[in-house]
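Late entry, evening session. Most of the bench is empty. Finally got around to the prediction I had been postponing all week. Sequence below, unchanged from the version circulated by S.P.
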Amino acid sequence: MSAALVVAMVGSLLPVTQAPVSGNLTFATDYRFRGVSQTYTQPAVQAGLEYASELGVYGGAWGSNVSGNQFLNGASLELDLYGGYRWELGKLGLDLGGQYYWYPSARYNIDPGDHYNTVELYLSTRFRQVSAKYSLAVTDLFGMKTNTIGGYCGINSDGTPATSACLGTGSSKGSGYLDLAAAFDIGVGLNLGLHYGYQSVNNYPELAYSDFKLGLSRQFGAFTLGAAAVGTDAETRFYRYTPTTAGSQETAHVAGTTIVLSASKAF
């Protein structure tokens, strides 16, 4: 095999990048992560920055405000650090990487104050407009284990603690999330986005759920405006929170179906 042919074959596996550094800024009426609000159904401001080399290696950081009603004792901030390797072979794309979800200072109220921070490894593939991604938690998923949620029964609609059909015990390490997505140009500048996801929670099957997203987006000048229907089939009592400050807000079901509006800019 000639050296020129080897170079050509290797080159076909490498992604074509427009610029080594890119960023994004988003304003949204809710921050939905895997279908579940992270902001107590309130608005979010988000921004990210990524470096991607011509060899396919990349790394970046992304941040958003989150709710102190859900991530206790912290800075009401999520900061994600990620990196990996992407490559392409024709219309097929592959991506292997890892992500660290960091919630500065946030911790459960239960002694010794376990953190929500999580590490996941992921593998994704894309063919044309369709993609599939699987993420595996190599730490306890958002701190969920015997010390933090073992025996938890959830919250009733009136905000009182539920007392039956409670969770068991164990580590949630090894939990996984399957993300199936597709995007289509449907004309007149509109893009249609479809998503289905399934979150499994190791040792806590009651917390497992499916989520969906159906969204439309269109670019207007420098911004892309979007509207999406988002929802889950999560068991309500386990995805209901009460405010940490009495009288400040009502009890919220953070996994219910909603419409999320957004305005974003890439640079």
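Two things to note before I forget:
The first helix runs from residue 3 to 12.
The two ends are 42 Å apart (CA to CA).
Will write this up properly tomorrow.
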